[in-house]
Design a protein that fits this description.
This protein is mostly helical. Helices cover about 75% and strands about 0% of the residues.
């Protein structure tokens, strides 16, 4: 019996606990095996429950995957919302504080390793995943986190610390919320993107000095792009 099976063996007493055990086991299995190779029988074995119990809660592998992926995405998005709020509530030195935010933005890579292992599998198996799953993941995870970051960056723009563009130059169709969301996307790309790519979503963590160099350079680029008075 594996460590996970031992941990889950006591959960037979309650349906809610059994369902949580199935989801935890599915997360382990999908992180290890990916979508293509994982089987419901593997989830049952990992959970210490019989296969009929697993299919009682989730009829098939598709429903298991959707539940695991969306729960993980929501958890990561919630964690990043807290990060954005904590680090942008009081900004006294824009570039320094954004560097701190950039480092904090990367902490879910270590905090949710199984979720990001599933995301790595997604990159290799995406053409074979059930229709709509990737779009639902993007909505529940990356897009939600981006929107929450955009809200906080928008507050900095209202204070004059950032400039997302001149509404007068953009015409009547200018939308400050959309402008803030584009800036948030750019922040994530510039500041976190290099670390995420080079570490393969946290699978091969970078040395601290390399992470710091990438984050610092990304923030400098972001600030140059959105500093008030910048000629775009």
């Amino acid at each position: 019996m594996t460590i996970q099976q031992t941990a889950f063996a006591h959960v037979r007493t309650g349906s809610a606990e059994e369902r949580r055990a199935v989801v935890r086991a599915a997360r382990v299995v999908f992180a290890r095996e990916g979508w293509v190779h994982a089987q419901v029988a593997d989830v049952a074995a990992e959970s210490g429950l019989d296969q009929d119990t697993v299919t009682h809660y989730f009829q098939d592998k598709e429903r298991l995957l959707l539940t695991v992926l969306l729960e993980g995405a929501a958890s990561v998005a919630a964690a990043l919302t807290v990060v954005a709020e904590d680090h942008l509530a009081e900004v006294t030195d824009l570039e320094r504080d954004l560097v701190v935010l950039g480092h904090a933005w990367l902490t879910p890579l270590a905090a949710f390793p199984e979720h990001f292992a599933i995301v790595r599998h997604l990159g290799a198996e995406v053409t074979g995943w059930p229709a709509g799953v990737v779009e639902m993941w993007r909505t529940a995870g990356p897009r939600q986190a981006t929107r929450e970051l955009a809200r906080r960056l928008g507050r900095l723009a209202e204070r004059g610390l950032l400039d997302f563009g001149d509404p007068g130059e953009q015409g009547s169709g200018y939308d400050p919320d959309q402008a803030a969301e584009r800036a948030a996307e750019r922040f994530i790309q510039l500041v976190a993107g290099g670390v995420v790519q080079r570490s393969f979503h946290g699978a091969l963590p970078l040395a601290d000095y390399e992470t710091d160099a990438l984050v610092t350079a990304g923030v400098a680029d972001f600030v140059r792009l959105y500093r008030p008075g910048t000629d775009r």
